[in-house]
Amino acid sequence: MGFGTETDIRDQDCQLVISHDMPGVGAMSAEQFFDIYKSAKQELPLALNIKADGLQLELARLLALYEINNYFVFDMAVPDGLLYARQGLHTFTRHSEYEPQPAYYELAQGVWLDEFNDHWLTDTVIEAHLAADKSICIVSPELHKRNHAQEWLQYQHLEAKIGKDRLMLCTDFPEQAREFFNE
To answer: Burial code of 88-97, b = ≥16 C-beta within 10 A, e = fewer?
Structure first.
């Protein structure tokens, strides 16, 4: 449908799998997922939420094997995140009300902007990250069980101001977002 994808990666039985929680029998392998991704014949963004430590070498191998370049990894523990960044993987750090100083910021290509409880993002925050040459992915409020309508109104002007190449929205409502932001 022309949307990027956010998914969770962890390990099971010495292979990478797609699973938010502890994977069960039959979890989709990362290879199966990357096959589907490549079959779409589009280089849409992949946001790879890392759910376990120590996956960087195998993930780097698979990304190279599948020739996937439009991706970023995020949400791993700080020591693990440093290893991803130092290996040259496209890494995003997180900025939230709980992480006012994003870890390994100077090594990250972008910032995962998360509002867990309240709307705290302002144009000033976003512009500061852009001035530091960071790409941005904003987590839409419904992912934290909050209403998205009011915040989407506040984000609406950002795409024209910033441009699509440095700004992404992670949402459970991609079709609604496309319609809303392209009005």
So the answer is: ebbbbbbbbe
